[in-house]
Specification:
The chain has a single domain (4-300), classed as Ribonuclease Z/Hydroxyacylglutathione hydrolase-like (Metallo-beta-lactamase, Chain A, 4-Layer Sandwich). It has seven helices and 20 strands. The chain is globular. By secondary structure, it is an alpha+beta fold. Helix 6 runs antiparallel to helix 7. It binds zinc ion (ZN). Zinc ion binds at residues 100, 102, 184-185, 203.
Length: 305
């Protein structure tokens, strides 16, 4: 069962930052049958399904302004997440944005009015069509979405709309800027919170595997050079940021980790890092696995690295 406070790396992160900031990461008093609700530094809710284990935590982030709220990603599919979101934000207008098109981030696409993904037509069409349970049987992701979905679908069909790179969502007293950062996938997007100096980085960063090896109809195409360009583009925001929030595993770290990641992928690109070949369950293929700076980065076997 997922519990961030039993996660060693999460606790180490808290022990290494300012105590006044660390005190702002806590389990909320608001309870839900399916989700653990955490309150994070910067007035952010982090929602983690109770039915995922610590190896597969997929967190959603809810950011409230005075007038509107933004939900980043809709998760892997468990519980009545739309009902929970509206319980948390009350009458405020809700905007849903996605870090990218991968199915473990979009299970509840289609349950909200205003949903946006970076303007990559193929990716939006893929998510809007919904994923079938068969298509997702390749992965260990939960496909028992409790909502009745037509045609044996694991995710609903949706009406996600495209947004432009640089779109700023004004929430009242705070805003969130969308920054297109492809590489892990074509529609990968980070979100920058100017008020608190927070970067929501999607699957670009993880303390598990960082995937830059995909090339199929489910995950779309990853690309290492594009990934490096995206990190370059992200650096001005990283310099202004304190913390990064990401979906999987221990979910928070200092923004400095993006500089570490940048150095890691540049070293891999320059051929300076040894790799081993491992089998990846998600892509069902052999991939190059690079271990550097405490990160494990997966790159396609045929990449020029
Ligand atoms: Zn992903």
């Amino acid at each position: 069962m997922a519990d961030l406070f039993s996660d060693e790396r999460f606790c180490r992160f808290l022990s290494e930052i300012d105590a006044s900031d660390a005190a702002k990461f806590q389990l909320s008093e608001i309870k839900d049958d399916h989700y653990d609700i955490y309150e994070f530094y910067g007035d952010v809710y982090c929602l983690v399904s109770k039915w995922e284990d610590n190896e597969s935590i997929s967190a959603l982030y809810l950011i409230e302004g005075e007038e509107k709220a933004i939900l980043i990603d809709t998760g892997m599919g468990s519980g009545d997440i739309p009902q929970l979101i509206f319980r948390l934000i009350g009458e405020k207008e809700l905007i849903v944005v996605y870090t990218h098109e991968h199915f473990d981030h979009v299970a509840f696409a289609g349950y909200y009015e205003n949903e946006y993904m970076m303007d990559v037509e193929e990716s939006i069409e893929r998510v809007n069509a919904g994923f079938t349970a068969d298509e997702l049987s390749i992965s260990s992701v939960r496909t028992d979405n409790p909502y009745p979905l037509e045609g044996g679908r694991a995710t609903a069909t949706a009406n996600i709309k495209p947004m432009e790179d640089g779109t700023v969502f004004e929430l009242g007293g705070r805003s969130l800027k969308a920054i297109h950062t492809p590489g892990h996938s074509p529609a990968s997007t980070c979100y920058y919170d100017e008020k608190y100096g927070l970067l929501f980085v999607g699957d670009i960063f993880s303390h598990g595997n960082i995937f830059i090896h995909f090339d199929d109809d489910i995950f779309m195409k990853s690309d290492l050079d594009t990934f490096i360009k995206s990190l370059d583009k992200l650096m001005p925001y990283v310099q202004k940021s304190k913390y990064i929030y990401f979906p999987h595993l221990s979910v928070v770290d200092t923004a400095q980790q993006m500089v570490v990641l940048k150095d890691a992928v540049e070293s891999i690109r320059a051929g300076k890092v040894q790799y081993k070949v491992i089998y990846n369950d998600y892509s069902q293929s052999d991939v190059k696995c690079y271990s550097i700076h405490g990160l494990e980065i997966l790159v396609a076997l045929d990449s020029e690295t």
